[in-house]
Design a protein that fits this description.
Aspartate Aminotransferase, domain 2; three-stranded mixed β-sheet; Aspartate Aminotransferase, domain 1; alpha/beta; 2 domains
Length: 397
């Protein structure tokens, strides 16, 4: 019987291999940075979401050391038992003031991961039997899973199609309506039409849940994210920010009206039933926020924008496609799974680490390279990558 079970597992793995869908882990041996040693080899990486280069920033690293000396290595329990430290409390206060000035009576709640934060929001707000969730077609897997786990009915609206969403909201008789979207779409790099979405939510009496995983720290004059970028303010907003990308450390937070956050504390299972993240991480994040909000953060965002502009300017594709993106996420759509893997391997042979993204992360026939740029990339780094991409596209035609 065990042999039969393992044979079924082997068959699933063989099916993935036959469609060029096997994923591979690589082992980084040095801190997250453009230049890393990976599996024993020096690489120039274009695959990290560490957009401002804070993951190995000396101030953040020192704050992590200091946090460990103050609070120890772990929290010991869930937040509602004994794991909620002074570091967590200070971080939540700071996040509410920094990231949520656009939200009335705002409060913030810290989570171990962005995945957990999204599950928490959608299952808590969508827990009523008369709730309805309206989910963007290209939402992240965590939002999709959160919607599936909620008791609410789920309707998917086409990517960026506010007219379709308007019609769906108008036709809904649900008492609680929840529109949920990424701000920056993780595989295409484009922005959701948040002003139009918020206007629809205010008109139809709906919540707008915004997952700003790839916008927090990067978008807006002060790095406060997509809401600052668009100048949005409304009690209808529920904001999710990730702290393991531009902030360089780990975890995530939800910012919303204080009553919404209290509902999460009381009802969100991913918050209630898990051990709190190490307080040292929260302490380190206070240093990250200082950098993001200060002169150095503004300089880092300017460097990132310059790198994005250089990439757009120097990349000259004829057959592959680069969807319009002005963010740090720069996809190169190749199409077939096997060709995307082959191109990624060719780049790897040149010391360039750019992953191939395939279904189910993206739609069939749209396998791609996902280039991510960061403030720590040099002009010469970007030039090396664009030159290699231009050359590879022509050589494989």
């Amino acid at each position: 019987m065990t042999t039969d079970l393992l044979a079924d597992v082997r068959g699933q793995l063989d099916a993935l291999a036959a469609r060029s869908l096997v994923r591979r882990r690589r082992t980084a041996e040095t801190p997250c940075a453009p230049r890393q040693v990976v599996d024993g080899r020096a690489m120039l990486a274009f695959c990290s979401n560490d957009y401002l280069g804070l993951a190995a920033h000396p101030r953040v690293v020192e704050a992590l050391r200091e946090g460990a000396s103050l609070y120890g290595a772990g929290s010991g329990a869930s937040h509602l038992v004994s794991g909620h430290s002074r570091a967590h409390a200070l971080l939540e206060e700071r996040l509410a003031a920094f990231a949520a000035p656009h939200l009335a009576s705002a409060r913030a709640l810290y989570f171990c991961t962005g995945y957990m934060a999204n599950l928490a929001v959608l299952t808590a707000l969508g827990g009523a039997a008369d709730a309805a969730i309206f989910s963007e077609a290209l939402n992240h897997a965590s939002l999709i899973d959160g919607a599936r786990l909620a008791r609410a009915g789920v309707t998917v609206y086409p990517h960026g199609d506010t007219a379709a969403l308007d019609a769906q909201l108008a036709a809904s008789t649900a008492r609680t309506k929840i529109v949920v979207t990424d701000s920056v779409f993780s595989m295409d790099g484009d922005l959701a039409p948040l002003p139009a979405l918020l206007a629809l939510c205010e008109r139809h009496g709906a919540w707008l849940v915004v997952d700003d995983a790839h916008g927090f720290g990067v978008l807006g004059e002060h790095g406060r994210g997509a809401l600052e970028h668009f100048g949005l303010r409304s009690p209808h907003l529920v904001y999710v920010g990730t702290l393991g990308k531009a902030a360089g450390v780990g975890g995530a937070f939800v910012a919303a009206h204080a009553d919404v956050v209290e509902l999460l504390v009381q009802r969100a299972r991913p918050y209630i039933y898990t051990t709190a993240a190490a307080p040292a991480l929260a302490h380190a994040l206070l240093a990250s926020l200082d950098i993001i909000d200060g002169d150095e953060g503004r300089a880092l965002r300017a460097q990132l924008r310059a790198g994005i502009a250089q990439f757009e300017r120097e990349l000259r594709l004829e057959r592959w496609r680069r969807p319009a993106s002005h963010t740090a996420i720069q996809p190169i759509v190749i199409g077939a799974n096997d060709e995307a893997l082959a191109v990624s391997a060719d780049l790897h042979a040149q010391g360039l680490w750019v992953p191939a993204i395939r279904p189910p992360t993206v739609a069939p026939g749209t396998a791609r390279l996902r280039v991510t740029l960061c403030a720590a990339h040099l002009d010469t780094d970007v030039a090396q990558l664009t030159s290699a991409l231009n050359r590879l596209e022509r050589s494989r035609a």
